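Ligand: NAP. Inputs:
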Amino acid sequence: MKKLLICGINGQLGSSMRRVFSGSFEVYGLDKVADGNNVFACDITDREKVFSIFEKIKPDVVINAAALVNADLCETEKELAYKINYEGNNNLLTASKSFGSYFVFISSYYVFDGSRVEYSEDDIPTPINYYGILKWVAENEVLNYEKSMVVRPCKIFSIGYDERNFIARVYNSLKKGEEFFAVSDQYNNPVLADFISESIKELIKQKAMGIFNIGGKDFVNNYEFAKLFAEYFNLDSSLIKSVSTDKSSQKAPRPMKVKLLLSKMESKGVRAYTLDEMFKMIKL
Ligand SMILES: NC(=O)c1ccc[n+]([C@@H]2O[C@H](COP(=O)([O-])OP(=O)(O)OC[C@H]3O[C@@H](n4cnc5c(N)ncnc54)[C@H](OP(=O)(O)O)[C@@H]3O)[C@@H](O)[C@H]2O)c1
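Predicted complex:
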């Protein structure tokens, strides 16, 4: 069985991938804290530690899902963001090159500014916040390595893997009977963590190279997204309130409308799902 190293394995996407890849790969992981068998405590900014783990595992495939994901924090803590999202990724990429591992980098739809609305893999990135800039710089470095793939997911959601993602926060607020404020002028095509994991698994199986957008079928704003989720699960959707970006507490500029086009992913036999189809997969 091939050896897979998931970096950021305790996070939202990392823990989904851990479950989805088990059985098909010998799964190893690293994150800030160790967690059971085969998961090593390793800060990806520590190059020596990264190399020592590669030496132990000699992974065939490496997926980097470890990052400082909070765009506002990246904007105010640029040095930290650079260390993790650029240097950390560079350490994993350099180790992958030395060990001949196939490297998969998880980028983001935040590489675009949103002015064109619809984006294919061929569109040139135009990031408007520091998080997006670092993703783009890292992407370029990754794509210079011949055994690599860059995955650009839209907004990721899940229940059970992570308490900080948008839908988990909506769910936790509504369960407590608290109001939830969601911006109604930022649009994207959200995707369930498990579907990204399944899609990446299929793309790896096909030894896909280059950039792949991964998203859902429905293009919605965050307010509509929260409402649809609440209505699907019979939660009190009247607690969801609409707010505009200029009145929100977000510090980093955001792309207002990014619809990732999915025909490249679909050409590989990976189909996109509607929100209803993805909600159906969630067990509350
Ligand atoms: N969430 C989204 O909507 C979204 C959308 C598009 C792209 N992405 C990208 O998708 C990937 C996965 O996102 P996610 O939602 O799964 O994020 P997440 O839940 O925050 O997972 C990231 C994991 O990496 C860990 N980590 C952070 N810094 C690290 C370091 N220096 N060394 C080792 N581990 C470190 C985190 O630990 P701590 O939690 O302790 O910090 C966490 O366990 C990221 O690359 C993100 O940029 C996310």
